[in-house]
Amino acid sequence: MASVLVVAAHPDDEVLGCGGTIARHAAAGDEITCVFLADGATSREGEDDIRARERQARCAANALGIGEVLFAGFADNRMDAVALLDVVRVVEKIIARVRPEIVYTHHGGDLNVDHRAAHQAVLTACRPQPGQPMRAIYAFEVPSSTEWAPPTSLPAFAPTRFVDIAARLKQKRAALECYAAEMRAWPHARSFEAVEALARVRGACVGVEAAEAFMVIREIVA
Ligand SMILES: [Zn+2]
């Protein structure tokens, strides 16, 4: 049984990026905590929308088997205006309490500024000091942000770790349905069809029916 922490910028990133992988951890009996750094709503609407996103996040957490959901409450799409140290402190506090062995977060080359801030904050909060609990840190991709950043402008997402989610694809879809309001019509990258197509392509990369792909940020073999 492992302790797993998912550091996501917005409610829905956890499902898009590693929903199937989370479901696998839950099935294995791992303890999963998910923190959302930004509220996913303030740049568009108000309080009601923030509460709605929190409800959606809890719905998705139930669908995937996430034990604890936390909301840091930074303003959506404005995390470039927040001091990195403030974000790091939030992540550090959670790490000190849940002592995660495995951490999942965003790729550092996403177009979305909140995704990049999450990546930076995790790198800093997870710096490999003596006694730190993390043995693996992985970066996931988020359709409509990772592939929207040209590799000529920001570091490309080049995955080297593939998790077979064929048996968890329906669960990922069910969790994504909690965020139906955030989904768009095909052929938008954040459509149900595109999310499944990406899982199929990532699976075909390694000869399985469906997969989620990750970049290995760090792995420590004890
Ligand atoms: Zn996001």
| Total of helices | 6
Question: Which small-molecule ligands are present, each listed once?
Answer: zinc ion
Q: Largest beta sheet: what is the strand line-up?
A: 3-2-1-4-5-7-6
Query: How does the major sheet shape up?
Result: 7 strands, mixed
- Using DSSP, what is the number of strands? 7
Kindly, what is the distance between the CA atoms of the first and last residues, rounded to a whole number of angstroms? Answer: 16 Å
- The helix fraction, in percent, is 25-40%
CATH topology: Rossmann fold
* Overall tally of structural domains: 1
Overall pLDDT: 95
Q: Under the CATH scheme, which architecture would be assigned? A: 3-Layer(aba) Sandwich
Spans of at least 5 consecutive residues with low confidence: none
The SSE order reads EHEHEHEHEEHHE
CATH class: Alpha Beta
Radius of gyration: 16 Å
Strand-pairing-aware structural class: alpha/beta
Strand content: 15-25%
In one word, what is the shape? globular
- CATH homologous superfamily, by name? LmbE-like
Give a description of the structure.
The protein has a single domain, classed as Rossmann fold. Helix content is 38%, strand content 20%. By secondary structure, the protein is α/β, with parallel strands linked by helices. The protein has a seven-stranded mixed beta sheet with strand order 3-2-1-4-5-7-6, with helices on both faces. Helix 3 (84-98) packs across helix 4. Strand 4 (102-106), helix 4 and strand 5 (136-140) form a beta-alpha-beta unit. Zinc ion binds at residues 9-10, 13, 112, 115, 142, 145.
